[in-house]
Amino acid sequence: MYLALYGFNNKSNKKCERSEVGFNIAILSSKEYHEKSTRYQTNLIVQRQILNLYPENLIFCNFIAGIGGDRCYDQMPNDKLEPVITKALKEYNDNFADMGLVLFEDALKHVCRITRIVLPPGGHPLLIGQRSSGKQSLTKLAVFIMTYTLFMISISSYYGMNDLRNDLRLLYQKSGVKGEPIMFLFNEVQITNERLTYITDLLTSGEVAELYNSDEKEDLINQIRPKVKADGRSDTRDSCWGWLIDRVRQNLHMTLCFSPVGESLRKRASQFSALINSTVIDWFHP
After folding, report:
1. Quick one: where is this thing mainly located (predicted)?
2. H-type alpha helices, 96-151
3. What is each CA distance from 274 to 94, 117, 198, 271, in whole angstroms?
């Protein structure tokens, strides 16, 4: 079109003819461009609508081959996610009390998030959602999928700080000395400010202050010294204790369940910053 205009201008000697033809060609060019642009934008809109209707969720986990399969961290195909977790839920219900879970899409994603959070050492989920939103049930299912051991304290009027210290010593023995992967599940009812002092130590460094006296600590170090040597590390007192804390951070994970209703979460997060800084938050939206 522009070549035709160039040729016409060279042949035509009348200025008015050149102006009129140029004006008409400009109008035609504008209409042609508008039509092409409209068609292109329409195609983009249709493509985006199709993607919105059938999106491919990017979900990563390490149980693509199922609970008994090889552990490989990779993207889980969307069409395999529900069958794998449904099978795991059936196996859980066959071995433990039936949880009666309904595995809708968000529940499947929460299970994958929890398993992903506890993969690295020092990975601790903070689950925030209203009561009866499935935080504890989905955690139990995630623990079963990861083949971890679930540990929960039994709260009663007689359960005090000495009982919590004894439970933590037991967890140190299992996760640190024996190398057993453990999920320590704490809900909001079980959490008090006094207990949070120990919990924040566990979240930040894995080392709970004043958990052992000097004699108990020395006995524990002597117990793990052969394992420290077998790992090729120095068997000094500090080296042995550091080896134990590394094992605790690797194997002991804590899941905290809170409700966003009220001021409890906000006040405790402001008093104990490790609740936010040393955890990975997973929101359970209604």
Report:
1. cytoplasm
2. 105-117, 135-146
3. 37, 16, 11, 9
- pLDDT(242) > 90: yes
pLDDT at 51: 54
Residue ranges covered by each domain of the chain: 2-53, 82-284
pLDDT tens, 146-182?
A: 999 999 987 777 888 888 899 999 999 999 999 999 9
Within a 13 Å sphere around the CA of 129, how many CA atoms are in the beta-carbon half?
A: 20
Q: Which CATH superfamily is domain 82-284 in?
A: P-loop containing nucleotide triphosphate hydrolases (3.40.50.300)
pLDDT of residue 138: 95
Full-model pTM:
0.78
- Residue 253 to residue 145: CA distance in whole angstroms: 15
> Rounded to the nearest 5°, which phi and psi values hold at 45?
-65, -45
How many CB atoms are closer than 10 A to CB 189? Answer: 10
Q: 266-279 burial by CB neighbour count: b if 16+ within 10 A, else e?
A: eebeeebebbeebb
Task: Compute the Cα dihedral for 250, 252, 257, 258 and give only its sign.
Answer: negative
For 19, 93, 146, 223, the CA distances from 246, given in Å and listed in that order, are 83, 34, 20, 16
Question: Which two structure tokens, joined as six digits, stand for 130?
Answer: 């209203």
Q: Mean pLDDT, to the nearest integer, of 243-265?
A: 92
DSSP summary character for residue 129: E
Can you tell me the distance from the alpha carbon of 216 to that of 194, in angstroms, rounded to the nearest whole number?
Answer: 23
